[in-house]
Write a structure and sequence with these properties.
191 residues, 3-stranded antiparallel sheet
């Protein structure tokens, strides 16, 4: 609840700084993204329940797991704090905020980051220690999961972010990407 009450206050501060930046009032300040990062860092102390990423956990899954563990429904709130309108991959500058809020080691957050960049005119994903030259082979925004693994371990494995992985090697079952009851697609932006 403390964080939910701080959201409008923080957003108002960022809006004021953006206006001042555009009007030329505060050109001596660092670029606006640096100012926003600074505000996020000082206004959001660590959440009460802390944990580290599992070595094979996806970053999106970690953020969802820790948000829910701290009584915050979904990851909408964090995306708003990061100044995003829609779900996308986390950016490099988000690593410190994620590690600080949830108590994760920076090295684990860094290794779990999914990066996208253009190399020789091609979109290339770098994820979980692998370079993926064909974007359709990666599915970092379209989760799939093994219900048995999630039930037993309580987290989403990074292995499931690869399109070619369609079965669980531990439970020998097909991964699901839709709810078996209502058939709606599973999304990261969920409670």
């Amino acid at each position: 609840d403390v964080y939910k009450r701080q959201v409008p206050f923080l957003q108002e501060k960022v809006i004021l700084i953006k206006r001042a930046w555009r009007m030329g009032i505060c050109k001596c300040l660092a670029p606006i993204h640096t100012v926003q990062m600074y505000l996020r860092m000082i206004d959001f102390p660590p959440l009460p329940f802390q944990d580290n990423l599992h070595a094979d956990e996806s970053l999106m899954g970690f953020v969802l797991r820790m948000s829910n563990r701290n009584g915050i429904s979904g990851i909408h709130w964090l995306y708003r704090q990061l100044g995003r309108d829609k779900l996308n991959r986390f950016k490099e500058e988000d690593k410190r905020v994620i590690a600080g809020l949830f108590g994760a080691e920076m090295s684990r957050v860094n290794s779990a980051m999914v990066r996208s960049r253009r190399i020789d005119g091609l979109n290339v994903y770098e994820m979980h220690g692998h370079r993926i030259n064909k974007p359709y082979l990666a599915r970092p925004l379209r989760p799939q999961l093994c219900p048995a693994c999630v039930s037993e371990n309580g987290y989403a494995r990074s292995l499931w972010d690869f399109s070619l992985v369609c079965a669980c090697p531990w439970h020998n079952c097909t991964l699901i990407d839709a709810c078996p009851a209502c058939l709606r697609k599973i999304q990261w932006m969920r409670p």
